[in-house]
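Appendix B. One record, verbatim.
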Amino acid sequence: MNMKLRKPVKVILIVFVVYAGLVALSESMLGIFQPERETTLVITTTDADGDTHDRVLARLDSNDELFVAVNHWPRAWYRRALENPNVQVRLAGQRGDYVAVPATEEEHDRLQREHNTGILFRFMMGFAPRYFFRLEPR
């Protein structure tokens, strides 16, 4: 490789590795601390072995319906909800049974507009693809 090209390639590689490390750190801290606020809920999903798992998620309201978003790369809860859409939700201190229904294309587009995360959030989350579930009471 040409000596003039080595340095820029090395710099780009270092920047990419540092960025990937920051994304991994940010995602890890969210997963470890799972901060709960008035704008969050706790979803309980069940895996194939019958074990339950809790995850704190941002609550999204749209057209008098309740939604949650998959905003991050760690998304085991999302895969479990796809496999078994019967979930429990703790919201405002109350626990209830719900069905997690993947958002339609129209709902997805509307939620993207109504609940735009912004470029800084997307940058910090490594530009993870964003999906939504509508939570329907059972």
